[in-house]
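Pasting two entries for a bug report.
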Amino acid sequence: MRARPPVSAGERGAALLTVLLLVAVISVLAAGALEKLRISTRLAANANATDQARAYAYAAETLAQRRIDDIMERDAARTTLEGNWNGRRQRLPIPGGLATATVSDGGNCFNLNSVVSGAQGLEKQASPYGISQFEALMTLLEIPPQEARTIAVSLADWIDTDSMPGSGGAEDNYYAALAEPYLPPNMLIQDPSELRAVAGVTPEVYARLRPWICALPNNEPSPINVNTLSPEQAPLFAMLIPQQLTLERARQMLLERPANGFSSPAAFWKLPALEALVPPMQAAEQIKVRTRYFNLNISVELAGAELSETALIDATRTPSRLVRRQWGDPS
């Protein structure tokens, strides 16, 4: 039997170094694999939690619609604040988390789409009434008149179906010349956040307007329910007849509203404080005592996942109908 040649110290050292390097490489690979597994597990858990949270949001949506139906069935002629439902945050405990739902009157706002006129499916053109009402609201919110005029006319240009700018407005040529060009959609706005892209609207102006505006699924003037309008929302009433009604007077009238509300728009306009006022026919018709649209805000917290939903509900018929739904915080 031939004797194995002796191994030198250098060879033994090289072999040991190779083994150590292999161990180090395997350790790094194993650590990477474990980290990927941990991340994958966490992502899967988050996805499951988000899916579960979404399911709870759908359930809360259904419960809220039933609540809206109950409100509407309580009195077929009018919608009042009875039951303290408007803007009230309802807590809905769920296994391992919490859901909240808030229902509010969705028509007490300025409908951005009302700056144009024209029936559904037909061409839209600027509405002088809607434009002047938007101007009035902005002026009441202390936006300079010239700035308010530019924004209101530019919004009408943004929505109308022609490419001719109104006086002081903006159309395709204006937006195409911007550093980052884009074009107006020439269609009804789907979300109030679209206003930020309209000429003249700065972040500061948008922040001031956001609590007062909405984008209803039509271009009709907003149905202002004087039975649910709060004194803090007095600008939405004063904008109807800005030359005749001061903000303070509008606020005071809402404070003096009967506890059970008004039985009809006619009963409201017969108030002694309003007898001297001569509202335009369109403004008089905007006043309602029954709510059509409801806003629904839902928030779900579950296993580290947070989910928000906003929805618009049409209560024209029973059961009420979901008009649109949006995930994420309102912008």
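Entry 2 (this is the one that rendered wrong in the viewer):
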Amino acid sequence: MEVCGMTRSISLTLTLCMATLVGCTGTTDRPPEKTATTPALVLVDDVCSLCHGLTGESISPMFPKLAGQQKDYLKVQLTDFKGHARMDKAATQYMWGFTHLTESQIAELADYFSGQRPMQAEAETPDARGELIFRQGVPESNIAPCSTCHGAVGQGLGQTPRVAGQHAAYMVRQIKLLQQADLQKRRDPASQIAHALSDGDAQSVALYMARLGR
């Protein structure tokens, strides 16, 4: 579940996450270097689209949907990739080629993907338990409602990622990453909540959020 502090992980977000060819193919061959003068739209067409789709509506749950994602969230995620600050080491390996992005390219990529039609919801049947957690939380476990930070329809705001329509499997993976975080070092709400979630509740709320937006 992506909650307030998840802006540093998704990782909705959001680790966020225009993976390169090496990440999509599973090979160790590095794609051609892009330079600081490469226009962002060329990066989208030549690199980002290979995993995330031309408009950010990825097909594989391995790679997050970026279409309609919050602009500020995308900027944070790309900046974290640039600075090797992501928790998801596998994603960092996929994104090795983006460590040389300029501030201008980061802004252009964020503008492009945030301006696309918001990610389309998945077709699973709504999960009743997931809806309860999203809207009311789990008071007995000190779990706040996801909607508190992500909005009533999961639209996100600013550096808090949009979760509506995101791949359920991707969100579950981000929750597991947060559960592995050291709470002494990460005191953000997302990490605290992830540690309190059971595996079943994580699956339920992810399935519910994946259905939002239809």
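Dev reply: Rendering is fixed now. As a check, the viewer should reflect this: Confidence is low (pLDDT under 50) at residues 5-23, 25-32.
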